[in-house]
Specification:
With 170 residues, this protein is mainly beta. 14% of the residues lie in helices and 42% in strands. The longest helix has 19 residues.
């Protein structure tokens, strides 16, 4: 993608699964590929994200804790972390330099989003019902944090996806 997510403010992006046989997804605007998402496997928690030249890994550093970490692919130390309060529909993404964003899920869990601490919605995501996984991403507001950390949108999508899988399992 040339430019930033802020340039797509007011636009709709799509997260789609090109093949139901693989755990690969694509983040697209119209037909332009913005990012690639590769899930490790269906039973573990983790994924790899590529946006432009940048690559990140989202993983659980400790099986027993709820914390989720983000690191640059190939590096050992995390650059960000996500924590959610027990039984809460929102969690906080802790970014470098003390910056933070909120990820909130909706009541019906069909719409969720990324919010600034001021409460402004930066991006909202809505799942569509189809044979292959497909979600619509609405870039609601321009944000320097979304431009710098585009993986936050994919983290919000992935957290809700895992929550739905856990609810369906039991």
């Amino acid at each position: 993608m040339q430019g930033s997510l802020s340039q797509l403010s007011g636009k709709i992006l799509k997260i789609t699964q090109p093949s139901i046989w693989k755990n690969n997804y694509e983040l697209k605007y119209d037909e332009e590929l913005i990012g690639k998402i590769t899930l490790r496997n269906i039973f573990s928690f983790g994924l790899f994200i590529t946006v432009g030249e940048d690559e990140w890994e989202i993983y659980k550093p400790n099986f027993w804790k709820a914390e989720i970490a983000v690191r640059v692919k190939g590096r050992e130390n995390p650059v960000a972390a996500y924590n959610k309060k027990f039984f809460s529909r929102e969690g906080t993404v802790y970014l470098p330099k003390g910056q933070r964003l909120k990820i909130k899920s909706g009541i019906a869990k069909r719409k969720y989003g990324v919010f600034a601490l001021s409460g402004v919605c930066l991006a909202s995501i809505k799942d569509e019902v189809s044979f292959k996984a497909r979600s619509l991403v609405y870039i609601e507001s321009s944000s320097e944090l979304l431009d710098k950390y585009p993986w936050v949108i994919i983290l919000a999508w992935y957290l809700t996806r895992k929550r739905k899988q856990a609810a369906a399992a039991g």
